[in-house]
């Protein structure tokens, strides 16, 4: 049995004219007009000897065999007076097999060529199957659903322009009914299916292939909607921008041919670079676009002429439309631009500037070798998608910036705003090269002759606290285990002995590997033993204690973590609070002068500032900038200390911080390290600054066991008396504001490895917590 569909479907399909013959029977016995009765009776008599016409058939050769009879039979449905106007035919339901065409439809198919095969547009096999199932629900089960898939034929004309026709279907002369193999779904199942339109396999489960009969014929009518479809395609191609793959629609020129009804059409587009006052080609379109006129503007005019041209376009943004270049004025024909037109066989063209908020974004050109291809009416059609052009260009610029940012993030790191401009310049070169499928090696990013500022607010004695809390956690864990093991039978004695050894070691002679060996004992022996007790018959008390024990255990380490968690939570809260305050105040510091800023969180928060003219080359830079930022830094750290005194009372574990500022007068260079994705000082000489910073952390006062930093105090480390005088001025200002106390200490820093002569000022923070 032949399947009349190319695609799988739930239908067995039969061509039948039974329902239309039923209409004729009704006319024969009920119509009051005698000529109508005689007409119907005559048609019925003519078909009496062809049972398959009524009963249904699948042999499509019968359509040709009975062509004259079918044309006569359907004459009322295909009036002769409309045959040259209407695009209409009979059809096998939902198939590409059509017959009984109007004259206009025949001519359209003739122009398409002998090899052209008519097919439905943009409907895949799964969508088609579900669509057929929906017809069953709608026709047989009377479900109130609307089939929303629009049906189109794409048929080329004589010139090769693709024309688009929307199909309307009259299915009055079809019927649908189940075979003996059909499944009759319940109401709940039908509702469930309609909620899962994309689940092709689910639909096929309840409507198996060829389990229903579709018998009859349909009448299809076509409406030429080429402009509407082309416009829709243009909008889609402009909207569908993939950020990961900025590729153009390769059919764009073909779509324009359909939209303007111009068979020989070339399309060009260039964006306008406002910064450099020039047109830029789009590398992704380079192989698809034809920029005859725009290329001439780029390559022929000198810079002054181009600038004047773009200034004029910005003030007078009217498009240029020339229907026939032969009709141009004689003076125009003497210009170099006219020879460009003739040399490139351009006899009709449009040049359209694309404007937004009175600014030039891009220029489009449409050219054709056929005179008369473009005129005012064609230009008018552009108005229907002007907004889409603007949207598409805006999206392109957005995606371009997005990709540049992505390159910066991927190839560098999260870059501070003050230096991002240099990364952007490099990333833009990389992006432009990649669009043109060219190789580009990212250059090194560095800034020279910068003055550094360093500060740290360090959480005091965090390592010692962590060690003591670790001992509390492990001792508590041993106590829990001893309590549980005491309740179990004698096979736990060896574990209790091992725990005694570890308890003694923890509290008397702890070793470097004590914690690791304890973890190994737990992981390999004690915990499997306890898990086994949960799986065998044990008392309710034992199982309850074991379950509660494992609730206290951190799964990653097999250790208790209660006390250390409080410390880690406290450190996290302190770091977050201090970092947030620093970041918030850093915004104000950028207003003084843009500079590179970075901070790090560990057991406390440290920050670096790098200031210099190379970071903001367009701004005026003087030594006053450094003084303002040094004062800002000291004032900010004082505020951080004051705020800490307030919120430290709410910490799970009480902590103290000690703050330090290091003053360094020598200029240094910083370079972005690609391997670490961060800036670092550049060169051996500059590394001296980093060495000092690291060694100040635990430095003592000279000839003393006391650290130079102390909780509740600010320590300022420097080299010369000039810095001392500068910071005493800053301290005096903050003392007058009640932020610092009048207890300035003048200290010498102990000699560090390779570092001598460091001095320090130390001053206490005010105890008045209302001061901000």
Automatic annotation (TrEMBL):
SUPFAM superfamilies found in the cross-reference section: GAF domain-like
Q: Which domain of life is it from?
A: Bacteria
Q: What is this protein called?
A: GAF domain-containing protein
* Species annotation: Chryseobacterium flavum
């Amino acid at each position: 049995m032949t399947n009349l569909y190319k695609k799988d479907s739930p239908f067995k399909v039969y061509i039948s004219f039974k329902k239309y013959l039923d209409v004729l029977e009704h006319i024969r016995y009920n119509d009051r007009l005698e000529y109508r009765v005689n007409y119907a009776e005559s048609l019925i008599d003519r078909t009496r000897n062809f049972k398959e016409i009524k009963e249904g058939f699948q042999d499509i050769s019968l359509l040709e065999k009975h062509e004259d009879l079918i044309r006569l039979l359907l004459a009322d449905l295909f009036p002769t007076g409309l045959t040259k106007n209407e695009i209409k035919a009979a059809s096998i339901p939902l198939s590409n097999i059509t017959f009984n065409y109007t004259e206009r439809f025949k001519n359209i198919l003739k122009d398409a060529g002998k090899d052209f095969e008519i097919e439905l547009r943009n409907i895949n096999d799964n969508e088609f199957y579900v669509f057929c199932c929906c017809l069953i629900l709608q026709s047989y089960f009377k479900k109130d659903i609307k089939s929303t898939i629009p049906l189109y034929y794409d048929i080329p004309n004589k010139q090769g322009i693709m024309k688009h026709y929307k199909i309307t279907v009259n299915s009055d002369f079809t019927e649908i009914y189940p075979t003996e193999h059909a499944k009759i779904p319940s109401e709940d199942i039908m509702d469930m299916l309609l909620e899962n339109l994309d689940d092709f396999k689910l639909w096929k489960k309840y409507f198996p292939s060829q389990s229903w009969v579709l018998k009859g014929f349909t009448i299809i009518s076509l409406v030429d909607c080429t402009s509407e479809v082309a416009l829709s395609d243009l909008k889609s191609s402009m909207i569908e921008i993939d950020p990961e793959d900025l590729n153009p629609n390769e059919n764009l020129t073909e779509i324009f041919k359909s939209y303007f009804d111009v068979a020989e059409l070339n399309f060009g587009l260039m964006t306008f670079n406002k910064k450099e006052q020039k047109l830029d080609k789009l590398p992704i379109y380079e192989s698809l676009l034809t920029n005859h006129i725009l290329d001439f503007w780029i390559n022929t005019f000198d810079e002054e002429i181009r600038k004047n041209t773009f200034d004029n376009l910005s003030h007078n943004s009217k498009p240029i439309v020339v229907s026939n270049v032969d009709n141009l004025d004689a003076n125009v024909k003497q210009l170099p631009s006219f020879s460009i037109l003739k040399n490139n066989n351009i006899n009709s063209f449009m040049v359209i500037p694309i404007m937004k908020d009175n600014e030039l974004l891009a220029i489009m050109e449409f050219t054709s070798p056929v005179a008369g291809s473009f005129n005012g009416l064609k230009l008018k059609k552009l108005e229907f998608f002007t907004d889409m052009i603007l949207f598409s260009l805006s999206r392109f610029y957005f995606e371009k910036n997005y990709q540049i940012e992505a390159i910066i993030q991927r190839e560098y790191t999260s870059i501070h705003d003050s230096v991002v401009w240099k990364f952007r310049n490099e990333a833009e070169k990389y992006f432009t090269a990649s669009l043109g499928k060219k190789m580009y090696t990212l250059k090194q990013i560095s800034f020279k002759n910068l003055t550094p500022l360093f500060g740290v607010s360090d959480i005091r004695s965090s390592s010692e606290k962590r060690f003591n809390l670790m001992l509390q956690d492990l001792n508590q864990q041993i106590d829990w285990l001893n309590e549980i093991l005491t309740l179990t039978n004698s096979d736990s004695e060896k574990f209790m002995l091992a725990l005694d050894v570890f308890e003694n070691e923890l509290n008397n002679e702890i070793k470097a590997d004590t914690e690791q060996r304890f973890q190994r004992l737990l992981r390999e022996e004690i915990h499997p033993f306890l898990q086994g007790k949960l799986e065998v018959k044990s008392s309710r008390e034992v199982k309850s204690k074991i379950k509660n024990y494992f609730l206290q255990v951190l799964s990653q380490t097999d250790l208790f973590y209660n006390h250390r968690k409080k410390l880690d939570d406290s450190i996290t809260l302190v770091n977050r609070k201090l970092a947030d305050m620093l970041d918030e105040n850093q915004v104000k510091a950028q207003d003084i002068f843009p500079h590179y800023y970075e901070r790090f969180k560990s057991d406390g928060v440290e920050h670096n500032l790098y200031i210099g003219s190379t970071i903001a080359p367009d701004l005026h830079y003087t030594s006053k900038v450094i003084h303002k930022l040094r004062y800002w830094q000291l004032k900010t750290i004082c505020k951080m200390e004051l705020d800490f005194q307030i919120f430290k009372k709410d910490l799970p574990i009480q902590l103290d911080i000690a703050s330090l500022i290091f003053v360094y007068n020598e200029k240094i260079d910083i370079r972005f390290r690609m391997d670490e994705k961060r800036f670092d000082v550049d060169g051996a000489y500059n590394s001296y600054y980093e060495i000092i910073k690291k060694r100040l952390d635990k430095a003592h006062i000279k000839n003393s066991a006391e650290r130079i930093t102390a909780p509740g105090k600010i320590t300022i480390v420097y080299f010369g008396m000039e810095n001392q005088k500068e910071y005493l001025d800053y301290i005096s200002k903050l003392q007058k504001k009640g932020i610092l106390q009048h207890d300035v200490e003048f200290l010498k820093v102990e000699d560090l490895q390779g570092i001598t002569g460091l001095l320090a000022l130390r001053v206490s923070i005010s105890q008045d917590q209302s001061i901000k």
